[in-house]
Amino acid sequence: MPATAISLPSPPVPARDWALFLDVDGCLIEFTDDPDDAGVQPGVVDRLLALSGMLDGALALVSGRRIAMLDRMFAPALFPAAGLHGLERRLDADIVALAEEGGADMRGVVEDARQALAPFPGALVEDKGVALALHWRAAPEAAASAMAFAEGALARLSGYRLQPGDHVAELKPDAADKGTAIAAFLEHAPFRGRVPVFAGDDLTDEHGFEVVNARGGISILVGGRTDSVARHGLADPAAVRDWLGVAR
Ligand SMILES: O=P(O)(O)OC[C@H]1O[C@H](O[C@H]2O[C@H](CO)[C@@H](O)[C@H](O)[C@H]2O)[C@H](O)[C@@H](O)[C@@H]1O
């Protein structure tokens, strides 16, 4: 039975035998109206690098963003990462893409999405190549139109699924999710054989929580969602940074 975040116990302090997986938006960093305005607070990168050293490198970012965008946000660090909700992966040097860039069908959907959201100032279309996000954080009145557009567009995109999120609807290939990405990392050094720990806030993170729970790990819901399978909770990104030991 899912529990409310407020009833979830806090996670233990990070331990040397963990494989630590961290979601980004809404978990490590606060939400902003425009995804391009989101930034990583001072001290976060240095602390994550220190934690990665403590874990012999077993720390990865697991995000809906592209890995190239994560690299810009967390520069100069290049952490192991899963991007696009698991469709991109980097264990050490190279980024492996599990789905091809969107073709003509996707280009048409992107153009039509821009038209569908044009009447709603502040609503945004984020073109991620193989995936597409329709955002309405700054235009809540666009929510129903964005969801209706995304549901309708699925018929035009073979092999795609709708990934709902926090003030966002995303269209992405159904080839992977955050759970399959975490499971794949756990097959390889330095992640293999460690206690999997995953912190995240959104519906896409539930796939990761399920994998971590099934392996006896530690799942951590950030925020107050009430429909999660996570077994631990933290209130917000500031609490996540405190838990990780980021200096204030
Ligand atoms: O898996 P995550 O790292 O949490 O990424 C999920 C999506 O995050 C971004 O959108 C979210 O954050 C934006 C910036 O704060 C916010 O404006 C938006 O409302 C949120 O949904 C990102 O833009 C997406 O591509 C990610 O999939």
From TrEMBL:
Known pathway? Glycan biosynthesis; trehalose biosynthesis
UniProt catalytic activity: alpha,alpha-trehalose 6-phosphate + H2O = alpha,alpha-trehalose + phosphate
Q: In which family does this protein belong, per the annotation? A: Belongs to the trehalose phosphatase family.
Which InterPro entries does the record associate with it? HAD-like_sf, HAD_sf, OTSB-like, Trehalose_PPase
What name has this protein been given in UniProt? Trehalose 6-phosphate phosphatase
Q: What is its EC number?
A: 3.1.3.12
- The top EC class is hydrolase
Q: Which domain of life is it from?
A: Bacteria
